[in-house]
Each structure stands twice: as C-alpha cells, then as structure tokens.
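Lab notebook, bench 4. Continuing the backlog of folding jobs that were queued last week. Each job is logged with the same field layout so the records can be merged later without manual cleanup. Today's entry covers Methyltransferase domain-containing protein, a 322-residue chain. Filled in by technician R.K.

JOB TYPE: sequence-to-structure
TARGET: Methyltransferase domain-containing protein
LENGTH: 322
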Amino acid sequence: MVDVLKVAKNLRNALLVDPARFYTNDVGPWVPGMPLPNQVRAGTGREPLWLNLGYWRDVEKVDENNCERVGELFPAAQSQMAHLLAKTARLGEGQTVLDCGFGYGDQDILWAEKYKPARITGINVTPTQVRIASERAKLLGLDGVIRLMEGSATQLPFGAGEFDVVFALESALHFKTRRDFLREAFRVLRPGGRLVMADMCMKTDREAGLTLRRRLHLRYWRGRIAMPEANMWTSHRFVSELGQAGFQNARLESIALDVYPGANTAFTALHSVTRMQREPGTFTMEQVRANVKKAREMDPNQLFWHMQYNTDEYGLVYAEKA
Ligand SMILES: C[S@@+](CC[C@H](N)C(=O)[O-])C[C@H]1O[C@@H](n2cnc3c(N)ncnc32)[C@H](O)[C@@H]1O
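JOB STATUS: finished
OUTPUT FIELD FOLLOWS
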C-alpha cells in the first residue's frame, strides 16, 4: 500500500528545495553505516563524517572482492577530494581560507592539519552540522585555527578582500543561487585569491526538448536533494558565469569519471552490506558481491546522477581574482 504520509513529505521536500532541512532531517554522513543526522555525534573528532562522493582516481576502488571494507574505502576517496581541492588552490602555510558548506568539518580538520593555513573560516546553513563540526575542531585542539559559523554562502558576513582561498566542496549545487555565491566569493577574495570548487553540472544542455513528464521527474528529484533549478548549468555556462562574476583564468576540469562510477559502486556496496546485516541468512554475501559487480559494470552514462538529476558532469572548478 502506498504510504500517503511519506509521499506527501517527499513532495513537500521537493517543493521546498531547502538544504538545511534536507541535511537536518534526511541525510547524514554517507559512511560508516549511513547514520541519520540525529544519530551523529562528535565522538573523538576523528570518525569520518564526510558527505561528498569521493575522488576515486588514485585510491582503492570498491569491487566484489573488497566490498566488505566499503566503510573504510569510501572515506579514503572522500578525503582525496579534499586534497584535490587543496592542491588545486595551492593551499599553504599562513593563508586565510573560507570554506562554504563544510558538512561535519572533515575537510577543515584535514586542511588545518596537513596544509597549515593561518585560519579557516567555515560557513554552513545546517545548524546541527555547525555544532558537531565545531565540537570536533575543539576536541582536536584546532579551534584556534578553525572557526565555524552558521550562515549562507550567498550572503557572506565578511568584508571585501579578507581571504586568500574560497572553497565550496560539493556544496554550491545547493546554494540559492550558485550565481549569488560567485558574486560573494569574488568580493571576499583578496586580489590574487583563488576560488576552488567541486560541483555537479551538465556536460551539454540535457534539458532542452524534454517532455513535460521528464521535466517534472527531474524537478522532483532535484528538489528532493535541495538543488535549485537555477543551478542547472552546463560546464560552458559555469565558466562563463565565473567570468561574469569578475574572475579570471576560470576553468572547469571534468573529473566525472573519477567520481560517479566509484561512488555508484560504493553506495551499492553500502546498501547491500547493510541489507545483509539486517536480513541475516536471507540476503547473503554472494548477493552483495553480485550487486557490487553489476554496479561496477554499469554504463557510466546510465548512472543515478545522470538519470535522476541530469547532472552528468562533475567539475573541478578553478578561478582567480586578478
Ligand atoms: C554534499 S554536502 C558537502 C559537505 C562537505 N563539503 C563534505 O564534503 O563532506 C553540502 C553542504 O553544503 C551545505 N550548504 C547548503 N547550502 C548552503 C549555503 N547556502 N551556504 C552554506 N552552506 C550550505 C550543507 O549544509 C552541507 O553541509
């Protein structure tokens, strides 16, 4: 029987397109065990609570022979994404950083410890994430370097020219709107400063000529993950929007093949392993391995993100303020 309340809740969420609500009620960290937001604790401060899809190029990928270790392999790829952004930004000692949409703060802890910037200021719309990430930074003795606050990347409470680097790690797809964020990022960067983002978009315009039914389908699913329609850009438009915001040397490098297939296999492994634990004796390790093998062999053009959201591109974005 159709669960009417659940359908109504999903429809309402799709219409609200509210990231704070989404990350407070629906989505917690993606490993280990994919807890709900209200189950997340600061713990020792070191438990991985990442929320990005991972950068799978130089790490062990999940497959049918190692899928029981997905809880360890997924965070390794997610931290690689943070390293990729840091290296792209030439992050180094003494710099001032603004991190927009920091999740539970994993990336700020990693950047503070490995790249030694003078200060990392983080801004995030989800209050529970701000609280837990701040507790973690304090537990690790990093609260002198990392300062995290509630607020929106589209209305930054900072003066002009305060930062050397602005990051948005898989967060700007949610901003209302991404264009407003680019304008704000440009304002708060000092001359010579860099904006670096990891973000989803489209390789080419996949929206033109769609049937009404298909449009509604995409709108519904994008709304469910709190992605505003105004952010449905092609990679070409993305670079042109950076230019219009005032940035120079703007580029978007496609890393889609190093993100989506790896994440797809990892999510399949997580769901299958969880199901095996919930249904012992019914759902076996053989079935987990079969599911993971099938996911690994999927056509990269038919993955979830392409079909449900139309976001077949995943870009590593770089731009400078002259
Ligand atoms: C997919 S998560 C990525 C989190 C983190 N970067 C990571 O890799 O684990 C997106 C994040 O963007 C934040 N966010 C969404 N809209 C925002 C906004 N307007 N301003 C600041 N943060 C926002 C969410 O609260 C969430 O923390």
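OBSERVATION: Strands lie at 96-100, 119-124, 146-150, 163-169, 189-201, 248-254, 313-320.
SIGNED: R.K.
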